[in-house]
Amino acid sequence: MPNHLISVPTTLRPTTEQARRLSDIVQQANHLHLTLRRWLRLRAAGVVLTLRAALDQVAAGQPLPDVHDRCELQLPAAALDEVRALTVADLPQIWGLLSPATVRAICHSNAKRLENRRTGRAAELLPLRPLNAVPMDASVQPLDEFHILLDGLRTPIVADVWMLPADLMDALLIAADEQTRQARQYVTDTCERVIRGEPSALTALYADASKIGERLLRSATRQIDQTRPHRADYVQLRVVTEPAGGQVHQLVWTVRVPYGHRPLASIDDTIGVDLGVRNLATLADDSSDWHVPRQTTTWDLPAPDPDDSHQLLIHALARRAVFERHRADLELTLQQILSYRRAHLEELDYDGMRDHGRVPWAGEAMQLSGASSLTGWVQMLKDVTGTRVRMVDPAGTSSRCPHCHRPCRRISPFVVTTCPVHGDMDADVVGARMIRKG
């Protein structure tokens, strides 16, 4: 049976300067992507202009002429050949932050979409939409549980590699260990050349020092095992909004999960999952319900100085310490949910929590404990087990009785729901049962 390819996100915690560089990379990648699209529109409209000339023109501050969305296009095959042949060495300096891997991926995706269809309206054939995510691929690598390395940045970026199910975190750390072994072998081979009378070999090693230096300081104990999850070559950079409300950069790795690594869903029932602060989660199936209790009283942490990478790392260490108090319960809960053939999960409205809810700090507290990670974990692995997942709007789920559907009363501190027929019930259990009903 084939492997499953799944998307595994890692949130980055860069310094202010690193965040600025990441934003510049996203901006340059979109600029190149849209420039290629505009040039392809021109070529498909009959304008004779080489790709190199078009890139130089844009770099000089002269935008390419517009082609109307309704224009009928016929793209010559030679234009696709020019796109395929473009390399990072051909680009003017305005795209100087883009790595060879990113340029190659942008060119490949634009050429690929046009291989089987080169005629049609401009808006359909070559829409001028920005990238959903920037392909990074070989230009980014995990270093350890707390850092990633990115081409073009001299220092590692603090990252939440640790905030994953253990088997998926290991998939990234296995890749990190393999990179460490390759770096050490590279240094060993270069030193052998020096001993043989080629001291100039050090020049290339110096040029790669920022890539390999950090790796030489760590141990490499994990080996690639094709029977366990392992990393594929594809990585994307995107911008997302966290539960606490801030926008952050996030890497999305592609991981191969071998068939059979996790058992297929076998319970022919629907499980409802209510997420919260008092309990990380409350689950209910047809016959039972149970809580996953919170293990700490920590709701938030002081913010670190965004210009200080050491403070960012200490902040990550503290967040992981809180998270690890809940990891065993989260991993078990994940396994339980994925054993059901159908799962209804609470679709959390973090904006509503912050702006209108009684507990505006709840999103941050749930992120810190790992409660908000549970939904993402299930979504990552649902295709591996065959669990069908449905996201359910929780509005009103704790204010109606799951047995008779009559309106119920909730009084502060909102831990009990009172039905006029069935009496007092745990509010989280009521929520899980109503979410289960969808």
TrEMBL record:
Residues covered by the Cas12f1-like TNB domain: 385-435
One Pfam family cited in the UniProt record for this chain: Cas12f1-like_TNB
Sample GO molecular function, one term: DNA binding
Keywords for the protein's UniProt record, in alphabetical order: DNA-binding
Name listed for the protein in its UniProt record: Cas12f1-like TNB domain-containing protein
Organism: Deinococcus indicus
